[in-house]
């Protein structure tokens, strides 16, 4: 059974940093493109960043230059380093495997809450 477990969120002031982690199980992790998504209250879930099996990365324009996605295949874990955080980054953050058509699995994890506020 595929499972994603996100962690590392919290309350941070504008301009601060957080590092999110997502541990995946039930898949051959190293073969998959892995993505970070977020969902703010009243908004649809959006793709923030992804990293391919070959470690190529891609970012939404809203986070480019501030967020960095990385992966550790030995730990089946994908990370999201978030710097220069803004109030508009406030959301629940999730991870999932994905392809060109979108997320691959319907059983999303519980997510991790990121709140950026002074």
Could you describe the 3D structure shown?
There is one protein chain. By secondary structure, this protein is mainly β. 0% of the residues lie in helices and 51% in strands. It contains no helices and eleven strands. It has strands spanning 3-7, 10-12, 18-25, 33-39, 46-51, 57-59, 67-72, 77-82, 91-99, 102-103, 112-116. Strands 2, 4, 5, 6, 9, 10 and 11 form a seven-stranded mixed β-sheet that branches. It has a four-stranded antiparallel β-sheet with strand order 1-3-8-7, with no helix packed on it. A hairpin with a 4-residue loop joins β7 and β8 (77-82). It is globular. The model has no long low-confidence stretch (mean pLDDT 97).
Topology:
Layout: E1 3-7, E2 10-12, E3 18-25, E4 33-39, E5 46-51, E6 57-59, E7 67-72, E8 77-82, E9 91-99, E10 102-103, E11 112-116
Parallel strand pairs: 2-11
Antiparallel strand pairs: 1-3, 3-8, 4-5, 4-9, 5-6, 7-8, 9-10, 9-11
């Amino acid at each position: 059974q595929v499972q994603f477990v996100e962690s590392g969120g919290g309350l941070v002031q504008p301009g601060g940093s957080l590092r999110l982690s997502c541990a995946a199980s039930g898949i051959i992790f190293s073969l998959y493109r892995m993505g970070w998504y977020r969902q703010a209250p009243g908004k649809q879930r959006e793709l923030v960043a992804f990293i391919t099996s070959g470690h190529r990365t891609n970012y939404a324009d809203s986070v480019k230059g501030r967020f960095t996605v990385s992966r550790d295949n030995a730990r089946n874990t994908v990370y999201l380093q978030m710097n220069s955080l803004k109030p508009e980054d406030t959301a629940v953050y999730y991870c999932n495997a994905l392809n060109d058509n979108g997320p691959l699995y319907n059983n999303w994890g519980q997510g991790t809450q990121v709140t950026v506020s002074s």
